Amino acid sequence: LRGGGSGCKDTDNGKKDEHGDGCKWYTENDPDGEECGLADTDNFQANKMCCHCGGGTGKQPTPAPTPNPNVCKDTHGDAEDVDGDNCEWYTTHDEHGEDCGYHDDDDFDAYEMCCRCGGGS
């Protein structure tokens, strides 16, 4: 729900859309808000009146940022190479990845774990 539980109040005050539904219907039956505004009338505008559709009155929730699926993440966890360095060292000090693989040990594989070295997730 986009607006539920945030302190926002619906302002439909008994007004209904062209199907006879108020803001409560959108909150309970339209999880992605895809129906918001499609059945508006002169007296009912879901996007202005219903918290779930981004309207209403009061505090609106701030949506969490969507993570960029194209951003690589190092996967070394607590593992370190033979020098006590992790993927952060390669990212910061090995601009072209020339040291990748030369300092690996039993629990650290730079090529598999570090984005700088072509690994990560």
Q: How would you describe this structure to a colleague?
A:
The protein is mainly α. 18% of the residues lie in helices and 0% in strands. The protein has four helices and no strands. It has helices at residues 23-29, 46-49, 87-93, 110-113. The longest helix has 7 residues, at 23-29. The chain is rod-shaped and about 70 Å long. It starts with 22 loop residues before the first helix and ends in an 8-residue tail after the last helix. The model has no long low-confidence stretch (mean pLDDT 88).
Mean pLDDT across the residues is 88
- Radius of gyration, whole Å: 25 Å
* Helix count, DSSP H or I runs of 4 or more residues: 4
* H and E string: HHHH
DSSP, total strands: 0
Q: Measure the end-to-end span.
A: 30 Å
Shape: rod-shaped
> Uncertain regions: pLDDT < 50 for 5+ in a row?
none
| Secondary-structure content class | mainly alpha
Beta-strand percentage range: under 5%
Helicity level: 10-25%
Largest sheet: none
Draw up the topology in text.
Layout: H1 23-29, H2 46-49, H3 87-93, H4 110-113
Tag the structure with descriptive keywords.
0% strand; 121 residues; rod-shaped; 18% helix; mainly alpha
Summarize the structure.
The protein is an all-alpha fold. The chain contains 4 helices and no strands.
